[in-house]
Each structure stands twice: as C-alpha cells, then as structure tokens.
Amino acid sequence: MARNVLYPLYQLGNPQLRVFRTNFFIQLVRPGTAQPEDTVQFRIPMEMTRVDLKNYLERIYSVPVASVRTRVQHGSNRKRDHRNVRVKKPDYKVAYVQLAHGQTFTFPDLFPEKKLSPEGDSVDKDVQQELLEEQRKRQSQDPRRGGVPAWFGL
Fold first, then answer.
1. At a CB cut-off of 8 Å and minimum separation 6, what does 95 contact?
2. What is the CA 73 to chain-centroid distance, rounded?
3. pTM of the predicted model as reported, rounded to 2 decimal places
C-alpha cells in the first residue's frame, strides 16, 4: 500500500514476512458544503494515492468503493509570528470517496439537541433563577468596605 517503504529482502529458507499494519492515518472530515449521501470526505497524507486509499478502505474496513477523487489543499500563508515572519500552515490532501451503488453514509450527530419536557421547564427556570441571584450577590458591593473597590485588598 505504501510506495516509499523498504521491506527486508526475502532470503531462501527464512520465513516470509507479512506486514498487516499500514503506515498511513486518515481522518474522516465533516464536509463544509453539502455532499451526496454516497460521498465521504477524508483528510489523507500527501504521499497517499487514490489507489492506496481505495485498497485501504476495501481491505481494512471492508467498505465497497466506486471511485476516489483527490485534491491538494494549500495551507494559509497569511499569519505572522512575533518576529513578523510569515508562518505557513502545512498543505494537506483531501479525498472524496464515492461509495459503491446502494451504499450511503451520513455523518453521525455526536451532540444532539436536548428536547425539553413540559414538566422539566419549571425546574430549569428555578435553577436559573437561583444562579442569577447568586451572581447578583457576588457582584453587589459589600457595605462594610465603605466604597473601597473590591480589587483593592484591605
């Protein structure tokens, strides 16, 4: 799967070497714009090719892949450090994987919105009122200080 990897040479009589782990790491990315349901977006290393990605997904995760499209996203070059020298973010490769016919993928909703129940609203409002009263107490001036600000320790 990887191109620039040197494997030890096989010599007659030695056991055959098998490598089952890959040296690539890919990230599943939530797309910025709406994608079709059968398209998944990944951030992959610059050295990884579309054939490598297809083999990676089919062999390791058993995901049927129809096609892979890639593009290189250039990193921003606008920031400057404390010496006024430009700081460039690294480039990365983005891959769009189209799944086989009939396969769909929806990005999981990791933080769903809570649905408030009618009886739970009054309890939440009571807690909110208590917190507001506590905050008002903390922010009110202490009459024993005689007008001296709170930041000035006595």
1. 26, 41, 42, 43, 44, 48, 50, 53, 68, 69, 70
2. 16
3. 0.61
